[in-house]
Amino acid sequence: MSILIIPAILSGMMMGAVYALVALGLTLIYGVLHIINFTHGSLLMLALYVVYFLNFHLGLDPYWVIPFVLPLFFVVGYCLQRGLIAPMSGGSEQNVLLITLAISLMIDNLALYFWTSNTRSVDIAYAYDTVEIFGALLPFGRVVAFVVALAAAPLVWAFMAFTRTGSAIRAVAIEKRGAELVGIDVNHTYAICFGIGTACVALAACLLLPTFYVTPQVGYTFVLVAFTTVVLGGMGSLPGALLAGLLLGIIESLCGLFLGESLGQIGIFLAFILILFFKPSGLFGKRAGA
Amino acid sequence: MLEIKGLKAGYGAMSVLQGIDMQIHAGEIVALLGSNGVGKTTLNNVISGFIVPTAGSVTFKGQRITGLKPLEIVALGIAHVPEGRKIFPNLSVRDNLKLGAFRRAHERIKQNFDRICALFPRLKERLDQLAGTLSGGEQQMLAIGRGMMSEPELIILDEPSLGLSPIMVEEMFAMIAQINAEGAAVLLVEQNVMQSLSAAKRAYVLEQGRFVMEGEAASLLANPQLQQAYLGL
Ligand SMILES: Nc1ncnc2c1ncn2[C@@H]1O[C@H](COP(=O)(O)OP(=O)(O)OP(=O)(O)O)[C@@H](O)[C@H]1O
Ligand SMILES: [Mg+2]
């Protein structure tokens, strides 16, 4: 049995790292702007299409477009928050919820209209080369995704901890008025934060596509898992999101192993219900609501 | 340096300030007195750009600042240390101070940091402590220190001695004198009438939306009307 379990855990961790990356963006936006961002999944889907088309039309490798797609989606996120979400919500947090939901429905349906519901994937031969780790044979693309996604988390953390913009973001998150008093541009800071969150999904898209697929609905899968990750990790907690993402990846993979591939996600939602029941503040959620 | 003319402001239909004229000259301490709820904090918030007045103007160093955003006003050299302090509880004392220089005097962050550490030794001992875990008095010092980091030409202190022990109040007034000696004009809002009139050069007394008394602090202190109303003499 362990011959199956170890590879399942490892491959679950590979996927879990990507969940963690998507959730990192979501939890960052929640932690600073205090909004539940429903556009997150749609932006991931958009990023997947961008990476797909760059490959399909220009033959560009998904990994090599990272330096281009990341800043592009940072700008997309920045503009979306500053140009659309902030002005339309007029500062009310309930409005934001509906607006992000509306924008996400619009993006998803436009995608369906223009790109149809066909499932598309790229053909990057080396992505499925196998790498042997602890006796398990894992696709190269998943290993890359794991390593890069895990490296992204400390980078975001270091940015928040050591840069001037990072401390402005932390200041705005907890004490908006105080931030304005020292002359921080709160709207700009919110938008930067939204941009970073969006860049996280763009990176996830680049890492995913070689071993995954894209459809207009693909965002739902991830955003549901990402929400679960955020809740499990403790709303707004970066290390929480990271650990919870990995954990959910493993849970999904093990459930897939024991219950059958198509039921893997049941484990995630079972975990979600159990967390809400026993520890609603999440693994790292002692400061939730602070 | 700061010139307020015919200022009216309020909240929705309720008017709080009903035509106010005020001057603050470079380098002086001006006390703003008045009982609870007369609009002292409202006036501070108008000056620092959080409330847009319904009439009148505020000019700073010859430039009209009514309608400017708070961050633009900070950049011009006004620091507002608000009621309730509004420090960043999840950040260290050090990071709180550094953020004080976010919009202004960022080039001299090092010198100002050292200067403020010298002024507030209690903060210096606690640079790595989270601001939220400081005592009330220390938080007040941090709020003032953070304001000082932008090298303001005018610093607004809204009830800095609120909730402090008598010894800390003494210490606080000594610090205010020190801050002023280093060159900043101070607008001091206080309930502590006696002490603030002793510290200030001039003072204004706000009642029902207007200034009912103003002038040299020393002569207000000797004014029987003020003594009766605010000192209970
Ligand atoms: N955001 C607000 N919305 C509505 N009314 C307000 C608001 N802020 C203050 N007020 C009212 O405006 C009046 C003046 O308030 P302000 O805070 O300026 O008084 P203050 O002189 O600073 O009082 P204190 O000495 O108690 O701090 C009060 O009647 C207060 O209830
Ligand atoms: Mg007040």
What does this structure look like?
The complex is a heterodimer of chains A (290) and B (233). With 290 residues, chain A is mostly helical. Chain A has a domain at 21-217. Helix content of chain A is 74%, strand content 3%. Chain A is built from eleven helices and two strands. Chain A has helices at residues 2-33, 39-58, 66-89, 93-115, 140-162, 164-174, 176-181, 186-208, 218-233, 238-259, 264-278, and strands at residues 130-133, 136-139. A two-stranded antiparallel sheet of chain A has the order 1-2. In chain A, helix 6 (164-174) crosses helix 8 and helix 9 (218-233) runs parallel beside helix 11. Chain A is globular, with a radius of gyration of 19 Å. The termini of chain A are far apart. With 233 residues, chain B is of the alpha/beta class. Chain B folds into two domains: 1-77 and 152-233, P-loop containing nucleotide triphosphate hydrolases (Rossmann fold); 85-151, no CATH class. Chain B has ten helices and ten strands. The model of chain B has no long low-confidence stretch (mean pLDDT 93). The chains are: A mainly alpha (290), B alpha/beta (233). The A-B interface holds A 164, 167-168, 170-171, 173-175, 177-185, 290 and B 48, 50, 70-71, 74-75, 79-80, 82, 85-91, 95, 98-104, 146-147, 149-150. The structure holds adenosine-5'-triphosphate (ATP) and magnesium ion (MG).
What topology does this entry show?
The complex is a heterodimer of chains A (290) and B (233).
Chain A: H1 2-33, H2 39-58, H3 66-89, H4 93-115, E1 130-133, E2 136-139, H5 140-162, H6 164-174, H7 176-181, H8 186-208, H9 218-233, H10 238-259, H11 264-278
Antiparallel strand pairs in A: 1-2
Helix pairs in contact in A: 1-5, 1-8, 1-9, 1-10, 2-4, 2-8, 2-9, 3-4, 3-8, 5-6, 5-8, 6-8, 9-10, 9-11, 10-11
Chain B: E1 2-11, E2 14-24, E3 29-33, H1 40-47, E4 55-60, E5 63-64, H2 70-76, E6 78-81, H3 93-100, H4 109-119, H5 121-124, H6 136-148, E7 154-158, H7 166-181, E8 185-189, H8 193-199, E9 202-207, E10 210-216, H9 217-221, H10 224-231
Parallel strand pairs in B: 3-8, 3-9, 6-7, 7-8
Antiparallel strand pairs in B: 1-2, 1-4, 4-5, 9-10
Helix pairs in contact in B: 3-6
The complex binds adenosine-5'-triphosphate and magnesium ion.
